[in-house]
């Protein structure tokens, strides 16, 4: 079956009102830790036991009304406290569209600041994920204001595939912001984003160099061996010690590599998504790599 055909079926099942028609979580469990925080805790503990930190992501995006956005902030506030009380080595990653970016920028900022007050109090950290290009400017604007007020509690993400990143990275690195560098996960047109892997990799390396030079603790988020090997060589040749940066990977991918990193003295952090609204995240992971699709199809036919 064509991939798009498969997604059309998945999409229509997911939108179906009847709970009987919901896609089974078993499909997503390769990439999503669990549907609730309680079920996610043992998985975080086991990752932490291997010397690897976590950033926890409550799945969801594009909240359209203030009631839901307010509820989401409450959930995040509880989450920060629950992580703290459980003694987990975990920060959180959030999406501004879950906190009202589609509704009103000022309102979204107020929600973020409410969350950052508590983050600061608990000595924790919030990473603002980067979403599709419609949100890049809004996210950077809000991040810059947040960073001024809460410099130790908030960081942002930069996507190497976007052509505008050349300018953004200079500005953010100059501020000394805490940046996660990734390739970018959304489908963007060639007018604004590089499409070929060699170009994206070259951009990634150029931006990583800027982060190593100008920021105190870059976060390198990739599963790509070429980039990982390049980072190891670049840092060792430029006397950048292993404790001055961090490798990040997604839950369910390359677990052995992450354990190797930790064993060899590199900082390693796994992005752990959980929650019931896993479909868009799951779809992005399938689109990225055909091996992921074969894995999911095989789970569909297993008991
Ligand atoms: C921690 C983290 C946070 C992220 N946050 C964001 C975000 O906020 N916004 C956003 O747009 N995107 C985000 N992403 C996703 C990112 O932008 C990419 O879409 C995703 O990481 C795929 O690119 P890649 O460099 O990892 O490898 P790919 O480009 O998918 O693969 C390149 C090569 O890497 C190797 N490889 C990849 N996966 C595996 C595997 N499982 N096992 C063995 N080899 C493998 C293969 O050789 C492959 O050919 C994040 C990614 C990570 C890791």
Proportion of residues in β-strands:
5-15%
Under CATH, the topology is which? Answer: TIM Barrel
Q: Provide a count of the helices.
A: 11
- Which regions are unreliable across 5 or more consecutive residues at pLDDT < 50? 16-21
Summarize the structure.
The protein is of the alpha/beta class and 303 residues long.
Task: Please describe the structure with a list of short key phrases separated by commas or semicolons.
single chain; 303 residues; alpha/beta; TIM Barrel; eight-stranded parallel barrel; 8 strands; binds flavin-adenine dinucleotide
What does this protein look like?
The protein has 303 residues and is an alpha/beta fold. The chain has one domain: TIM Barrel (Alpha-Beta Barrel). Helix content is 49%, strand content 13%. The protein contains eleven helices and eight strands. Strand 6, helix 8 and strand 7 form a beta-alpha-beta unit. It starts with a helix and ends with a helix. It binds flavin-adenine dinucleotide. Flavin-adenine dinucleotide (FAD) binds next to strand 4, strand 5 and strand 7.
What's the SSE blueprint?
Elements: H1 3-15, H2 37-49, E1 53-58, H3 66-85, E2 90-94, H4 105-121, E3 126-128, H5 136-149, E4 154-159, H6 165-175, E5 179-182, H7 197-214, E6 219-221, H8 225-237, E7 246-250, H9 255-263, E8 267-274, H10 279-288, H11 290-300
Parallel strand pairs: 1-2, 1-8, 2-3, 3-4, 4-5, 5-6, 6-7, 7-8
The chain binds flavin-adenine dinucleotide.
């Amino acid at each position: 079956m064509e991939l798009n055909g498969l997604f059309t079926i998945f999409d229509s099942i997911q939108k179906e009102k009847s709970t009987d028609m919901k896609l089974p979580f078993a499909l997503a469990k390769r990439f999503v830790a669990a549907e609730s925080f309680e079920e996610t805790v043992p998985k975080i503990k086991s990752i932490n036991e291997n010397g690897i930190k976590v950033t926890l992501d409550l799945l969801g995006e594009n909240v359209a009304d203030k009631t839901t956005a307010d509820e989401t902030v409450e959930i995040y506030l509880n989450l920060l406290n629950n992580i703290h009380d459980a003694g987990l080595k975990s920060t959180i990653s959030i999406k501004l569209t879950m906190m009202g970016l589609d509704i009103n920028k000022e309102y979204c900022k107020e929600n973020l600041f409410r969350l950052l007050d508590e983050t600061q109090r608990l000595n924790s950290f919030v990473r603002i994920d980067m979403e599709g290009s419609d949100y890049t400017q809004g996210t950077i604007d809000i991040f810059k204001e947040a960073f001024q007020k809460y410099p130790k509690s908030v960081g942002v993400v930069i996507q190497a595939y976007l052509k505008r990143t050349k300018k953004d990275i200079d500005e953010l690195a100059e501020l000394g912001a805490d940046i996660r560098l990734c390739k970018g996960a959304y489908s963007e047109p060639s007018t604004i984003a590089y499409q070929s892997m060699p170009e994206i990799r070259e951009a990634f390396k150029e931006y990583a160099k800027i982060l190593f030079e100008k920021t105190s603790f870059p976060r390198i988020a990739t599963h790509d061996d070429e980039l990982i090997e390049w980072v190891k060589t670049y840092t060792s040749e430029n006397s950048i010690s292993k404790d001055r940066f961090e490798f990040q990977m997604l839950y369910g991918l390359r677990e052995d590599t992450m354990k190797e990193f930790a064993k060899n003295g590199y900082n390693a952090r796994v992005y752990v998504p959980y929650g019931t609204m896993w479909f868009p995240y799951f779809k992005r992971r399938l689109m990225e790599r055909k091996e992921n699709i074969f894995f999911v199809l095989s789970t569909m036919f297993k008991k």
